[in-house]
Each structure stands twice: as structure tokens, then as C-alpha cells.
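Fold this complex.
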Amino acid sequence: MSQQRQGSTPGDAGGVPAFPDLPEATIARLPEYLRALHHLAETGAETVSSEGLAAAAGVNSAKLRKDLSHLGSYGTRGVGYDVALLIDQIEYILGLDKNRAVCLVGVGNLGHALAGYAGFASRGFRVVALFDADPSKVGERINGLTVRHIDELSEVAAEESLAIGVIATPPGSAQAVADVLVAAGVTSILNFAPGVLSVPPNVDVRKVDLAIELQILSFHEHRKASLTALPGGRSAAAGNQEAFGS
Amino acid sequence: MSQQRQGSTPGDAGGVPAFPDLPEATIARLPEYLRALHHLAETGAETVSSEGLAAAAGVNSAKLRKDLSHLGSYGTRGVGYDVALLIDQIEYILGLDKNRAVCLVGVGNLGHALAGYAGFASRGFRVVALFDADPSKVGERINGLTVRHIDELSEVAAEESLAIGVIATPPGSAQAVADVLVAAGVTSILNFAPGVLSVPPNVDVRKVDLAIELQILSFHEHRKASLTALPGGRSAAAGNQEAFGS
DNA sequence: CGCGATTTGTGCACGCCTTCACAAGCGCCT
DNA sequence: AGGCGCTTGTGAAGGCGTGCACAAATCGCG
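Structure:
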């Protein structure tokens, strides 16, 4: 994933710290740390060691310390990290204090589920509008929202300041929907449709392809099967995660 | 993702080629190449150049050539790659010629959608069983399958030689379900529940966390917002993909 | 048969990320 | 007040992945 970044924004206004220049790999892990921290906060923990948090997030403790060091020194040597403070910091960096509005296009099988997915609301995202191109779906109510026709997208975007759009349409419609989203001013897209989207350079696209995940697992199955059929009964370990007392 | 691998399996039985030692990054891209190749095959193309296939898959052509070179020389200089041959090769490597059986645990909001997701069946995976712990869900019919109680999982696994399990339960149940799957002999797990799973080293886990994807996009929104508020109106490009004439 | 156009396969250099190992800093206990 | 144990933050090394640039190979045409 070849994201690139360059703004270190040295002297900035207000009391907010300058926007740090985080490695992409770190960014991808921050949400995982955040989830683990929320879990710890619920159990009443005031502080965590890098070792403890790393275990809860399924990573190496050195990696975790380096990641957190990129956003400043919020730990205390000999003690650990202040859970509440770290949560605030990560949420600020991720921009989750904005309670971002998300719209979803494509209310088919998958879109239906996403519209009702509790994990979005509980982690700072509000699904504010549902769209579909199929007239027979327009008007349907899902989880308190009414499905609207995709032609209304630009109007809604103007009212709600939509920044993030989710595409859950069949592959053939994905590019057209992306074009509509971009035209409406959406600058971040989460795409569940297989295929490559073409968007302007200022728009971010992340892709989730469920079949690809299965295919990768299938490869490892194939590999494991061809290994166990051989002499050395090597354990052939692969990407696991550490324990996490449920 | 710290997968590791070591078996180059030098001299092997039968006519099948020795199992190559592919970089993890390459493996993750093979499914994307495969999808693009199928698309090309439908349009009647006999051969593709690395440039053309790379564009269709949204990657650099040099990267594509290096990836393909890892699985052997299946291209012809001056001509390109044989589409049908390459499809067979990639499907063999990914183990998709086995038509793998998949079971799904957790028939809630998301699980319901996954059970009916057409993208699985169309790409070599058969969802053969649905499970849930909630007695009120057991017996429900979804897409031609009947939801069974999770206690029956081990019996079904014995009949169907299940290798891949999908977890779509609430976070609190995910670890328990993983334990059941592992006990039943499942060695690959696709986990949609937030949190870290603890499994034996021979079991592969891939995680898909929809909220994390949104959080990463939210970060980029935050970054872009703090950049546009500054002097140099840099374009601030990020991970896009190339065109793909639909 | 030879030549030019085209495209693959790959050696090499560069940069990012991970991991180790340790110095610096903090709190607690005596 | 001093010392001791614990934990963070980071310098340095190594590995992995990417992309360039070019040699090697193949086809088609005259």
C-alpha cells in the first residue's frame, strides 16, 4: 500500500500539537491499540505497561513503544502509559473526536448488514444516509434510516458534510458510484466491491475484498498440506497473535 | 503481519511442481491478479502484457513481473502472458482447485450477509455450514442452508473436511468460537470480530475489522484537513489505483 | 536468414519497517 | 537522601519490499 505523506506542519495555530508525520504502518495499528485501551479502561486500569498493552493488541512491545513515541512522549518511565490520556491522544490523531458522518451506497446483501453494524456507531462513526440505484429499494427503512436514490447523494452531502463514503454495490457499479461520491466532495472511500477504482489523487481509497482474504487463507492451507506430506514435521507457524484473557 | 515460511520442498513426488517460497506481499496480490485475469478472459483476451495486467490490477508493472517470476516463467518475451495458463497457475498456487469448504459461525447482522455473499461461491469457496450459539437462530434457513447449533460443529467438520472457518460473532464470543474451531481441526480462520485471537501456531488467522478501516480513513481526513489549512496547497496524494476501463 | 520491435525476467540500490539492546528517567522503599 | 528496580524512549542493525534500468529472449517481417 503505497500511501505517502509529507506535511509535518511545524508551527501551527492554537494549543493543539503540530500534526505528526506518522509511518503508514503505525497508523494502521493505532486503531488496534485504541480498542485494547478502551477494553482496559472498562476494567478500571489507570495505567498500562508497553508489555501489557502490546499483548492486548497482539504486537511486539518494542513496536508498540516506537509507534507511541511517534506521537510524543505520553508514557512515564518506571510506570507505563496513562490509559485515559493515551485514548484521548490516539482519538485526536485519528480524528475520531469529530464523530464523522458516513454514507453507504448499495443496500444489497452486504450493504444491509453494514447499515446495521453496531461496530461503526460504537467507535465514532455515524451512518447518516443510505443510497441505492434500485428504485425498488428506495424508501426501505433500515435501522432507522430510509434508503434514498443515489441521485440525491449530492444534496445530502451538502447538508451533512460527508467525508467518508462506503461502496457496497456489485462490482459493475462501483466505479460509477465512486465518481458520484467524488463529485459530491467525498474524499475517503471504503470499497467492498472487487476491482480497482480510479479516483483523483486527493481521494483515499481503502479496499476490503472478502474473497481475497479467503484466498490468502486457502494458499496457506495449500502450503501447510504440502508441508505435512513431507519428511521434516516442521511446525510451520504463521501469523498468530498473543493471548488476551477474555 | 509476521507470517513466516520455510519449506522450499526441493525434490517432490508426482508431476506437480515443487511448492515455491513466495513472499507474503506477493501472495496478497495474487488474488487481485487472478480477478483481473478472469475479467480479461471474459473479454476474450488470449495474452496480456505485464503492463496491461498491472493496470487492470492496480499495481506497478515491475512489481507484477517480479511477483509472477516467483512462481516460474509463464510469460513469453515479446508477447506477454498466456491468460488461461496464468489463471491455472495462480489458482493452483492458491489452492483454489480444491473448491474449499468454509463454515461460518455467528449468524447475526454481518454473518447473515456473509452467508449469502455471492462473491464467495463465485471464487471457489463453498459455504457448507452455518452455526450460532443462540437457540432462537438455530433452524433458520439462509440461502439454502440451515443454521445449526455450534455444538454440532465438530460432527460437521468430520464429515466435510472443513479447513476454513469464518467468525462473525460479537467480540465476547470470538475466542470461544475460535477454540471450538481449532478443536474441530480447522486450521485457517477469518475473523470479523474486533479483538485478538489466541490460537496454536499451526493455525492461520486473518482479521477484518471494518471499524479499523474507517478509522484509518478518518486519520487521512484529519491529516488532509490540517494540510489544506496551511500555506502550500500541496495535493497530498495517497494510495490510489490506476484506471480500469469498466 | 537476419534485423528490429517488443516484452519478460532480474541485478541492484534505496527506503521503510521491525527488532534488539541499552541508556535515561521515574517512583518507591528503606 | 540514597539506592534499587522497573519501564520508557531510541540508536543501530538487519530484513523485506519496491522500483529502476537493462540484458536476454522471442516474434514478425522483409
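Residues 2, 49-51, 65-66, 68-69, 73, 75-81 of chain A lie near DNA strand D (CB under 10 Å from a C1').
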